[in-house]
Specification:
about 200 residues, alpha+beta, Ribosomal Protein S5, domain 2, four-stranded mixed sheet, 8 strands, elongated
């Protein structure tokens, strides 16, 4: 009996060592994670917002081939905004491709007093978008896709209405076309030109 007890105690002895080794490995892993947290991350110039992701199918000889289509809007909150649509084998690939397309098609929106200079209405492939300037403190009165597109431009006060089609891609591109049609206040035909004023005063 004594010999049996001795063998059992000897067999059970190495267990704490294995546990201690496991704890040491966890400590090393935790130290690596802390080091990753200490690495400073550079701030992104553009904010990326995924508006919509759809699964699309293409019929081939062997059956259906499924892919993903992503609609992404990017902006820097300083007047630059772009929209991109692209497909990929998985969601991450579709988002990455759509982001690249959006960055290549950036437009500059003239912003005056945190709002747009004038109203505009654009109809694009069934989608109709109306945008109007608003007084300070109004905020962005918009819904769905229009709000997400306007939110990354830097505009803080605006009124909008989406009419017609509810297709998110068409609404996003119609909003971009409406923003693209904005004309700065100093380029209006009835805008007073300071140079002419100076000439009149000199005479």
């Amino acid at each position: 009996m004594a010999e049996e007890k001795a063998t059992t105690t000897q067999a059970a002895a190495p267990a704490p060592a294995a546990g201690g080794q496991r704890r040491q490995n966890q400590g090393r892993g935790g130290q690596r994670r802390d080091n990753r947290r200490d690495v400073p991350q550079e701030p992104k110039e553009f904010e990326e917002i995924v508006i919509n992701i759809d699964r699309v199918a293409r019929v081939v000889k062997g059956g259906r081939r499924f892919r993903f289509k992503a609609l992404v809007v990017v902006g820097n909150h300083k007047g630059k905004v772009g929209v991109g649509v692209s497909k990929g084998a998985d969601v991450q690939a579709a988002i990455a491709k759509a982001t690249d397309v959006a960055k290549k098609s950036l437009i500059t929106v003239p912003i005056a007093n945190d709002t747009i200079p004038h109203d505009a209405e654009v109809k694009l492939s069934g989608a109709q978008v109306l945008i109007k300037p608003a007084a300070p403190g109004t905020g962005i009165i918009a819904g769905g896709v229009v709000r997400q597109v306007i939110g990354v431009t830097g505009i803080r006060n605006m009124l909008s209405k989406s009419l017609g089609s509810t297709n998110k891609v068409n609404i996003a591109y119609a909003t971009i076309e409406a923003l693209k049609s904005m004309v700065p206040r100093d380029q209006w035909l009835n805008a007073e030109k300071p140079a002419k004023k100076a000439k009149k005063e000199s005479k």
